[in-house]
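Need Transcriptional regulator's 3D structure for a figure. Predict it.
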Amino acid sequence: MIDRTGLAEFLRRRRESLQPEDVGLPRGRRRRTSGLRREEVAALCHMSADYYARLERERGPRPSEQMIASIAQGLHLSLDERDHLFRLAGQTPPPRGADSEHISPGLLRILDRLHDTPAEIVTELGETLRQTPLGIALTGDLTGYRGPARSLGYRWFTDPATRRLYAPEDHPFLTRMFVSGLRGAATLRGPGSRAAHYADLLLAQSEEFRQVWNDHEVGLRPHEVKHFIHPEVGALELNCQTLLDPNQSHLLIVYTAIPGSESYEKLQLLSVIGAQTLRSGVRDQRIQ
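Structure prediction for Transcriptional regulator:
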């Protein structure tokens, strides 16, 4: 059963304890609110301000599991806080561990500060959970995929467009690396896991995957330097650094270029192109 009073009080407390800079938002000169505004939290949670306001006022329909998960992420809750929020809403908390998609507050705080850098948070299966704006400009919005296609390793063998973003000379190694990573995850998580399911799907769909899978290669790690082929700025040579959250098996991947290099200049150009595309998209939405 939903505890409307407890839910409303918890949401208000968490909202008032957060500052704009905690969630990657500008503070502004004339700000008088202590903590975040309701409309700011609603935007972070991908819901209407009216819907969120009703929850804080102990009104509205009982929120779904998907809505509660979105609120927990938007408010940068810890796992314990997330589980508490689910129980207040009368829902069973999702499982923790490798299958969890709740990003830790620490990882989110780092990502929020990388506004001028391509970066993303992914699961151990290469499912993108969050990207910076420049990350989207580099690889496209990868959070919109559904089902097995959310996994980069799965798309590598089923969607030819995925490979066009990477330099052809890197394809053989990337093929081996994706298979190696999936084999390791499937063995670690066991039968019935999402990793094992993806492996079964690819074994049935891709001859290339079957051939490399039969080599039983494990332990391959990504190269520090990745070579991208961007449709607008061309070839990019980027260094790749990874930060692991061991509790959630999530990876924060950050792409940088050597200052003064051609790739560095192209990233600067890409940041401008990405911002223009974003503004254009906002204008188009307003016109419709």
